[in-house]
Amino acid sequence: MRLHVRDMTLGEADLVIDYFLGATPEYLDMMGVDPSRLMTREAWRAHMQQQFALPPLEREVFRVTWLLDDAPVGYSSCDKVVAGEQAFMHLHVLIPDLRRQGIGTECVRLSADVYFEMFGLKRLFCQPHAFNTAPHRTLQKAGFKFVKTYMTVPGAINYHQAVTQWVLER
User: Fold this and answer.
1) DSSP letter (8 states) at residue 8
2) Residue 89: Cβ within 10 Å count
3) Residue closest to 38 by CA, chosen among 63, 21, 61
4) What is the pLDDT of residue 101?
5) What is the DSSP code string of 117-163?
6) Helix, strand or coil for residue 79?
7) In this predicted structure, what is the pLDDT of residue 72?
8) Could you say which of 11, 32, 111, 144 has the lowest number of CB atoms within 10 Å?
9) Integer distance in angstroms from the first to the last C-alpha of the chain?
10) Rounded-to-integer distance, Cα 158 and Cα 55, Å
11) Could you write out the three-class secondary structure of 23-69?
12) Rg of the chain over CA atoms, in angstroms?
């Protein structure tokens, strides 16, 4: 088995769209996602086409695809980028049977390498829903350090929630 990470292509945009639009309300809630804030498939695809037309450093969100033996198994995204300083990452294992198998930890490490190099970062943050324990274990195993737990609206598709913030510094 070969695990690697590379820049996501526009042809893989449906991985993201299908992941969210195909998720159960319970799964979305576990991630702190408000289903009413998700775009329609058509609007989301148009937005991603517009974003992929931009150079990576100009996108609102930069994504990498996680591949196991050249098949997509997950992805990570990076947003709120302040080049040379910091950014925020998100992580998603797409295939339920592969969750809790250690793939996420290695893919988070590989994704972080891409983000640090691409954006010249000093700090990379991740702040999953405080009650979604799986990403917290993954981040800790990948070398992130606990910062704090606090209330916020972490992104455009999220509701106000408790998040636990982690940081990786270089």
Assistant:
1) P
2) 26
3) 21
4) 76
5) HHHT-SEEEE--BTT-HHHHHHHHHTT-EEEEEEEE--STTBPSEEE
6) strand
7) 96
8) 11
9) 29
10) 26
11) CCHHHHHHCCECHHHCCCHHHHHHHHHHHHCCCHHHCCEEEEEEEEC
12) 15
Q: Residue 151: CB partners within 8 Å, gap ≥ 6?
A: 160, 161, 162, 163
pLDDT along the chain (170 residues), means of 10: 92 96 96 97 97 94 95 96 97 84 90 97 98 94 98 96 98
Distance CA 159, CA 114 (A): 29
42, amino acid identity? E
Strands 161-169 and 123-126, by their bridges, are antiparallel
Domain ranges of the chain: 3-122
The reported pLDDT for the residue numbered 97 is 79
3.30.413.10, 1.10.10.60, 3.40.630.30, 3.40.50.20: CATH of 3-122: 3.40.630.30
The tokens describing 136, both together, are 């917290």
Judge whether 145 and 114 are in contact, CB under 8 Å.
no
